[in-house]
Design a protein that fits this description.
- The structure is a homodimer.
- By secondary structure, the first copy, chain A, is of the alpha+beta class.
- Chain A has 4 domains: about 100 residues, Uridine Diphospho-n-acetylenolpyruvylglucosamine Reductase, domain 2 (2-Layer Sandwich); about 120 residues, Uridine Diphospho-n-acetylenolpyruvylglucosamine Reductase, domain 3 (2-Layer Sandwich); about 100 residues, Alpha-Beta Plaits (2-Layer Sandwich), CATH 3.30.70.2190; about 90 residues, Alpha-Beta Plaits (2-Layer Sandwich), CATH 3.30.70.
- The first copy, chain A, has 17 helices and 18 strands.
- In chain A, the strands form 4 sheets. A 7-stranded antiparallel β-sheet of chain A has the order 15-12-14-13-17-18-16.
- In chain A, helix 1 packs antiparallel against helix 3, helix 9 crosses helix 11 and helix 14 runs antiparallel to helix 15.
- The first copy, chain A, starts with 17 loop residues before the first helix and ends in a 14-residue tail after the last helix.
- At the A-B interface, strand 9, helix 8, strand 11, helix 9 and helix 11 of A face strand 9, helix 8, strand 11, helix 9 and helix 11 of B.
Chain lengths: ~475, ~475
């Protein structure tokens, strides 16, 4: 039971204040929903956390409508929970204190593509897949790629990353500016489109990763990149996870600008082969990708092959054809669903620690002592170039003993990572699932975070119960 | 007179509260100075702003001592102004309301070099030159390079950048974590050394660029990079500034990862030749640098030469010898002093707008209509790959009419840049010199910045009068 993690409040049963309900109806008409099934669906993400539904779901179509909703909620003292694609993994969308969910998927316009500036402005509800489809004709792309069909607003709110972060950075690095609605319903822009600025506090980075607790993101301006002239991939099996990790750490330490460096352990490769009908060799495997002009890519591939073989790689198979590469990354992105399919009815508890790369081998080795003893299926995948890896604990949320075992395993993992100068979450965020680790990770700095929250949301109406303990 | 910009308060004449003075003496002994000449020197940077001296200068040697100073000042209600190398350009170190200057140059230890993680932790008073000297044997370097002999703490505090930002980013991108002392004298760490994290608010980015107004930075953990296998430079003269700018914009739009792309106009080349005893052709000139393994660098050089010639480059002279490159970048970094030397007794008022690259040509063209009419010498240099350029207005601060002319020119330039979706400062910061533009640039977002300041420094003791108007 994730009551072990943090007891979600009992779903709020009573209705919304009548004045608020009337105001929202007047504003949104049929785009306000009180339907139980819809509320249930909006109270959960993709992880093991149970649904904790909001009292109403709003479907605004503009920043002005979001601002009007926030003003109505502020007047009523009612909590607000923003919702993108519902792909979050730490209970970010749970309406722990009831209130109004703002579903931003109706705000799905691409507002401006500017190839000359390598940037784009989108509404928060645009998904990363759709953005890249729309960009195709321009020769540009947006690299940040978390697993799900996430919205760009949700990705900004959780400071998401993915398989390309080792080369292109995370949402922290790739959001130029945002439009945000504050707790009082004021509309602000966090910065200009200039590539750099020293003009005051970095509001863009403050709102990136704030998980809806400081304001609601309604528009995002993102950096774009030219689709590389050449893309090459390589599949590189090893006898052990340890050798694979050592190879990646060497590649990073040599400063080779690989675009992707992903690890799957043996069990994950098995699950992927079964789910995606692929035939990868069932052993710990690194998947590399290389971007650039021809000579630079050839140079990188040769260097990485040399390093990998030096660390015991069993093979180094390049996958240059677009189809083979597409299949590879599609398989990689389906890991969450592939391992879930190993056990019908189960859910995946995905851990997310990230440590300095020099501590990665030790962190994984100590963790594997723990996972070998587990009573359920566990996969290991890693954005190992960043020092970030995920265990997928395939658990039955209705089995209290199993959930307690999973929680204890995750607790030990997080403490290990923090002791190794790392973080409890590389890219999934805190939600309410990791609130209990905030004090351990941040110490006195947590007081500064509390002061920021108090300053921007004194009534604690913006996604209450997320990020900050107590 | 920069009273036109913002009147600095008359230097505070009365002494510090006796209890504070006694406390500081007990803490620091001879490392507390009330000497008039030393206070005068600590009240000014390198620009046209007059000195506005603090009432005392402290020379702490540890974070614990800084924390003790802040606790004493908090109890006395006395302002605090942090001081690095005194290279700031917008009056950041002026003690507008008197108080205590904390000179951090005594905190100059390199605490940990970690080649395996490509990071380093230094005290705030270490200069970038010294860091790179100490790193040489490791094969690593720190790229961010503002013009002066700046300290890394000061660079973090102003979100500095320099000639390498087009490839390596600014201090925003290259600070992993910091130790900061808050207004109440509490010591916090803004984050772990993990390359990425989604664990709560991004305190690192909040304190980077906060100019000592939210806390005092005492230690900085920085990203490092491998010294490139090959470094090549190219000098590329053009008949006009417009052609040179168009060439750089094309290079950026093609996504070529140049390490540097710097512009000097004709007058700047003349000043540099005279000051640095160089013999560059006296015409608008681009200076490029390329980093990487051999094939990648050769590929970049060929592409950039093709683009430059397509935009009318008069030549494309490569400078592969380390000596020629060193001379080139030393000359570039001395521009501030070179143009100051054109007029004995004068000071340089350096403007700093930054716009999206597609608006750069227009911003420069409209600005040149203005500068052609000026009554004093003006140079133009640019980190044009970032959309950032500086005019160096060589003025006599005692000539009121000239200062009024300079201020009017800068005002028009800033308004033009903001109208083109840019910023009043790409890398110098706000200090008090640009406070008056904050409302125009940020609109309602300024209210959020005020709320953050109020939350972290309610008594307004941390570098008061900087960043925020009123």
């Amino acid at each position: 039971m994730d009551s072990l993690t943090l007891p979600p409040a009992a779903p709020v049963a009573e209705g919304l204040p009548p004045a608020l309900l009337a105001g929202l109806r007047a504003l949104l008409g049929p785009r306000l929903s009180l339907n139980a099934a819809e509320r249930e669906q909006h109270g959960r993400g993709e992880s093991y956390h149970p649904s904790c539904p909001p009292q109403a779901v709003c479907h605004p179509r503009s920043t002005a409508e979001v601002a009007a909703i926030l003003r109505l909620c502020a007047a009523a003292g009612t909590p607000i929970v923003p919702f993108g694609a519902g792909t979050s993994l730490e209970g970010h969308v749970a309406a722990l204190r009831g209130g109004v969910c703002i579903d931003l998927r109706g705000m799905d316009r691409i507002l401006a593509v500017r190839p000359d500036d390598l940037d784009v402005t989108v509404e928060a509800g645009v998904t990363r897949h759709r953005l890249n489809e729309e960009l195709r004709a321009t020769g540009l792309f947006f690299p940040v790629d978390p697993g799900g069909e996430s919205t760009l607003g949700g990705m900004a709110a959780t400071r998401a990353s993915g398989t390309n972060a080792v080369r292109y950075g995370t949402m922290r690095d790739n959001v130029l500016s945002m439009t945000v609605v504050t707790a009082t319903g004021e509309i602000i822009r966090t910065g200009s489109r200039a590539r750099k600025s020293s003009a005051g506090y970095d509001l863009t980075r403050l709102f990136v990763g704030s998980e809806g607790t400081l304001g609601i993101i309604t528009e995002v301006t993102l950096r774009l990149y030219g689709i590389p002239e050449v893309v090459a991939a390589a599949i590189c099996p090893f006898a052990t996870v340890e050798e694979a990790v050592a190879a990646v750490v060497s590649v990073i330490q040599c400063g080779i600008p690989v675009a992707r460096a992903e690890l799957m352990d043996r069990r994950t490769v098995q699950a992927v082969n079964r789910y995606s009908k692929t035939e990868y060799r069932e052993t710990p495997t690194l998947f590399f990708e290389f971007h650039g002009p021809p000579a630079a890519v050839a140079e990188q591939v040769a260097l990485v092959e040399e390093i990998a073989r030096g660390h015991g790689a069993l093979a180094f198979d390049s996958a240059r054809e677009p189809e083979a590469r597409a299949a590879l990354w599609k398989a990689r992105h389906s890991v969450h669903y592939a391992i879930q399919a190993m056990r019908p009815g189960a859910r995946v508890w995905s851990t997310d620690v990230c440590v300095p790369v020099s501590n990665l081998a030790r962190c994984i080795a100590e963790t594997r002592e723990d996972t070998e003893r587990a009573s359920f299926f566990i996969s290991l995948v890693g954005h190992v170039g960043d020092g970030n890896f995920h265990l997928g604990l395939v658990v039955d949320p209705s089995d209290a003993a199993e959930m307690a075992e999973a929680e204890a395993l995750n607790d030990r993992l997080v403490r290990r990572a923090i002791a190794l100068d790392g973080t409890c979450t590389g890219e999934h965020g805190i939600g309410y699932g990791k609130v209990k680790f905030m004090e351990l990770e941040h110490g006195a700095a947590l007081g500064v975070m509390r002061a920021l929250k108090q300053a921007l949301d004194p009534a604690n109406l913006l996604n209450p119960g997320k990020i900050l303990p107590g």
